[in-house]
Design goal:
One of its GO terms (biological process) is thiamine biosynthetic process. The protein has nine helices and nine strands. By secondary structure, it is of the alpha/beta class. It has a nine-stranded mixed beta sheet with strand order 3-2-1-4-5-6-7-8-9, with helices on both faces. Helix 1 (about 20-30) packs across helix 7, helix 5 (about 140-150) packs across helix 6 and helix 7 packs across helix 8 (about 225-245).
């Protein structure tokens, strides 16, 4: 009998399919795990931006989480877009209630297009309620600046910001270097520095890269890989997708998560 590892994504839906729940499920499927989802919000968006957001009620999110945990218990959990403190509290309550493991928090605050995806007061709840339960936090430059209060313009700034976030949360931080000018080096800080080097790939279509990376990391953690190996494998997967250079839409387009299936 075939038994797959299971991963739950708690995030918002992207109607264009490039980010959020849709990107998470595609990533998990192509990384060999069974994907489940609890939706925090519906978004009307495409490659050019987000035009509308409809948040689910805390009660409905609570029901979704209970339904998943009571039946198909996840081996890892990825948390993406959570726009309000009320929803964050519901997630934190359930993670503690069911003793969830291998939790990756991608603190989604701004879409690739520049649209804001989180209420201001929710950032505080994110730091106080969710971060302490996580095994890894995966901010990009913009998110790390908000979380650390430090402007990031260099490798040295990356180290300082990651250290500040780690010291406040006591949780490992993967600060993604996709906004660096001449490289794509990511920094894992867990009391020590570990760098994951990467070359800059000339591709303007990066919609959903953060969702994809965090979901791939969660998938690898579910399969029993170490944190460092999970990040390495996820980064390799993302680089392969970027090198494909799928070009859809008139803005920052999505990735071709299942390219090898179609060939």
């Amino acid at each position: 009998m075939l038994i797959r590892k299971k991963v739950l994504t708690i995030a918002g839906s992207d109607s264009s399919g490039g980010a959020g729940i849709q990107a998470d499920i595609k990533t998990m499927l192509t990384n060999g795990v069974y994907a489940m989802s609890c939706i925090t919000a519906l978004t009307a968006q495409n490659t050019t931006g987000v035009s509308n957001i409809m948040e689910v009620s805390p009660e409905f999110l609570d029901s979704q989480l209970e339904s998943v945990f009571e039946d198909i218990f996840p081996d890892a959990v990825k948390i993406g877009m959570v726009s309000s403190s009320e929803l964050i509290e519901v997630i934190a309550k359930n993670l503690k209630k069911y003793s969830a493991k291998n939790i990756v928090v991608d603190p989604v605050m701004v879409a690739t297009s520049g649209s804001s995806l989180i209420q201001t007061e929710a950032v505080k709840a994110l730091k106080e309620k969710l971060f302490p339960l996580a095994d890894l936090i995966t901010p990009n430059f913009q998110e790390a600046e908000v979380l650390s209060g430090k402007e990031i313009n260099s490798i040295e700034d990356m180290v300082e910001a990651a250290k500040l976030i780690y010291e406040e949360s006591n949780v490992a931080v993967l600060l993604k270097g996709g906004h660096l000018d001449d490289s794509c080096d990511d920094l894992l800080y867990d009391g020590e520095e570990t760098w994951f080097r990467g070359k800059k790939i000339a591709n303007q279509n990066t919609h959903g890269t953060g969702c994809t990376l965090s979901s791939a990391i969660a998938s690898n953690l579910a399969k029993g890989h170490s944190l460092a190996d999970s990040i390495y494998l996820a980064k390799l997967y993302l680089n392969n997708l970027l090198m494909r250079k799928l070009d859809l839409g008139s803005g920052s387009g999505p990735l071709d998560h299942g390219y090898f299936i179609a060939e």
